[in-house]
Amino acid sequence: MTGILQDGARRLLATAVEAEIADYIERHAGLHDAAGHRMVVRNGHLPEREIQTGIGPVKVRQPRVNDRRVDEDGRRLQFSSEILPKYLRKTRSIEELIPWLYLKGISTGDFSEALVALLGPEAPGLSASTVVRLKEVWQTEYEAWSKRSLVGKQYVYFWADGVHFNVRLGGDGEGQDRQCILVIVGATPEGKKELVAIQDGYRESEQSWRELMLDLKARGLADPPKVAVGDGALGFWAAMRKVFGETREQRCWVHKTANVLNYLPTGKQAKAKQSLHEIWLAETKADAERAFALFIETYRAKYPRAAECLAKDRESLLTFYDFPAEHWVHLRTTNPIESTFATVRLRTNRTKGCGSRMATLTMVFKSLQSAEQYWRLLNGSHLLEDVIRGVQFEDGLRKDAA
Predict the structure, then answer these.
(1) In the prediction, which pLDDT does 142 show?
(2) Is the pLDDT assigned to residue 306 strictly greater than 80?
(3) What gap in Å lies between CA 103 and CA 94, rounded to an integer?
(4) How far are the Cα atoms of 69, 94, 124 from residue 85, in angstroms, in the given order?
(5) Is 142 left (phi over 0), alpha (psi -120 to 50) or beta?
(6) What is the pLDDT of residues 17-43, one digit of tens each?
(7) Residue 86's pLDDT is what?
(8) Do 14 and 8 contact (CB within 8 A), yes or no?
(9) Where are the beta strands (DSSP E) in 26-153?
(10) d(CA 199, CA 182)
(11) Can you tell me the distance from the alpha carbon of 6 to that of 394, in angstroms, rounded to the nearest whole number?
């Protein structure tokens, strides 16, 4: 079966390349030199090469094009296939397989065995050393990405979180604390979620978050987000108020629920969790306020710490009611970040740590960058323009709606 598929792939590839070259020659068929000879013609074939694909190696023999045209600087023009780039030896899916295996927890020492199992024993150029080279490339990519210009960019919403890893920050004193990676994801005016910032910091301190947000402003991010969603880390909110003072605060209900339940005995948690759901799933803010009050009244006497944990963030837990109802599912949690970090934790658990500070940053960057491709648009993306213009919403609906 594999042989049949490989033969079919070879034939399809050859047909596609032949058509591409025929089109290229046809487009320049009217060009002739002083002797009347055509400037662009076929000229035999290039040496046969082997391309690694998801179904194994596929041999290809690409036609050669003799292009005698020159550009304005006197340099010879050359045909370059978009289907078979000159130095292609592995398909894009194979290139993506290597970082995927690494980020899922396969150590560099186990790569050869894993690749042989997936691609067969004849898989040239896919040794474990490839991962070492790729990690260097990823580091360069991260450093360039973290310095990119943000001039003209705008984010309507921010999701922020900090996650700790088993990596020491180095130096004396504060170096004894685990590395904390600070992450911000933003929603563009078109409704697309984008990775905005990744930076390591000392715990989740105000100074670390402040440095990150000031860096965003210094690189050109002028407009503050309308809403920031995060957990109860005081450092983030203190920094946000100083750097983006106009941004409204929305506490993450997933974090808050976990924090409240932590103050209750196991036997009480299921019922309490349902009561908390009745708050943030209420149809209107008034209904949420009533459910909020009921929870406080129910648990305040016997479990005051649980009641206080909820009550202290009452206003910021219900901010989402002042924005389009279609956006509520996105604004109530930091899920875009939380779900992705599950992959990073899998890697760190498997390898008993992350390695160096830069290795951790790079791993987080590549994991989030990979996940970013699958983040879906916000529900009701067209309503973001209303949010940007400052249109008022009440219980998820426009106040000026008929």
Answers:
(1) 92
(2) yes
(3) 15
(4) 20, 15, 18
(5) alpha
(6) 777 788 888 888 888 888 888 888 888
(7) 59
(8) no
(9) 40-45, 49-53, 56-60, 63-67
(10) 5
(11) 59
* pLDDT score at 162: 84
Residue bearing tokens 């984008």: 194
Pairing of strands 393-394, 397-398: antiparallel
8 A C-beta contact, residue 248 and residue 319: yes
Residue 329 and residue 324: Cα distance in Å, rounded? 10
Q: What is the pLDDT of residue 169?
A: 42
Of 36-50, 93-107, 204-218, give the range with the top mean pLDDT: 204-218
Q: For residues 179 and 349, is the Cβ–Cβ distance under 8 A?
A: no
Q: What is the pLDDT of residue 31?
A: 87
Amino acid sitting at position 327: H
Residue 386 has pLDDT above 90, yes or no: yes
- Helix, strand or coil, per DSSP, at residue 69: coil
**DSSP-assigned states of every residue in 299-311:** HTTT-HHHHHHHH
Q: What is the DSSP string of 139-170?
A: HHHHHHHTT---TT---SEEEEEEEEEEEE--
Provide φ and ψ at 193, rounded to 5°.
-85, 130
Amino acid letter, residue 191: G
Q: Across-strand partners of 56?
A: 53
Could you read off the pLDDT of 40-75 as tens digits, one per residue? 888 888 777 766 555 456 677 778 888 888 877 778
Biggest CA–CA distance in the chain, Å, is 100
Q: Label residues 369-378 b or e (16+ Cβ within 10 Å = b).
A: bebeeebeeb
> 291-304, pLDDT tens digit by residue?
999 999 999 999 99
Q: Which residues of 325-364 are buried (b: 16+ CB within 10 A; e: fewer)?
A: bbbbebbbbbbbbbebbebbeebbeebeebeebbbbbbbb
Count CB-CB contacts under 10 A for residue 392: 11
For 324, which DSSP code? -
**CA–CA separation, 227 vs 242, rounded Å?**
15
Determine the pLDDT at residue 380.
Answer: 95
The confidence score (pLDDT) of residue 16 equals 67
pTM for the complete prediction?
Answer: 0.70
Task: Give, in degrees to the nearest 5, the angle at Cα 369 between 178 and 154.
Answer: 100
**Cα(328)–Cα(97) distance, rounded to whole angstroms?**
35
